Amino acid sequence: MANSFQRVNHTLRTDGGWRSLWVLLLAFALCGGWVAWAAFARVGRYAITDEAQVEPALPDSGKLLAVADFPASALADVHTGQPAVLHLTRFSSAQSGTISARVSRVRYDAAEGKASVELLLAPPSSGNFPLRVGMPATVEIEVERISPLALLLRSAGGIVTGR
Q: At what angle do helices 18-40 and 2-15 cross, to 10 degrees?
């Protein structure tokens, strides 16, 4: 037993602890970088629905329209002007079945308990797919950009002020 103690003692005297100090400093730097990212990076939070379809173009505007139904709880988050993405369900994203959009109007239907959201669609960048009235789609509306740390605190029940 004295032999192993002498080896440890000899190692501590010859090493001086510098290797351990560098590893410890590296670990602190990595943890500090992760905490900084969690506090200052911004990630998107989205309202998503599968209940959307392409509607007829607006008269004399040449723009396309989509209408999406969201639960009434989405009224607090969805506002005019927010960016959105429309995923046509008959096409994969690789086949250009994704179209950029912007929220143009939000209405609440008290009888059905739903929020109806109108989206102005950007013209498709390529003509790989025919865009027809009545096509079903999934809509993702970016409702907020928030730091991961604030999102974690909010989901844990903490109070985070501001958006």
A: 70
* Two tokens, residue 98: 């994704």
Instruction: Give the integer Cα–Cα distance in Å for 85 and 49.
Output: 11
- Say if pTM beats, i.e. exceeds, 0.85: no
- The pLDDT of residue 163 is 46
Angstrom distance (rounded) from CA 55 to CA 152? 38
Identify whether the C-beta of residue 67 lies closer than 8 Å to the C-beta of residue 49: no
What is the three-class DSSP state of 160? coil
Q: Which amino acid is at 64?
A: L
Nearest to 155, CA basis, from 34, 143, 146, 40: 146
What parts of the chain have a pLDDT lower than 50?
162-163
**Whether 148 contacts 38, CB under 8 Å:** yes
- Quote the pLDDT of residue 22: 87
Question: Which pLDDT does position 9 carry in this prediction?
Answer: 76
**Cβ neighbours of residue 152 closer than 8 Å, sequence gap 6 or more:** 38
First to last CA, the chain: 62
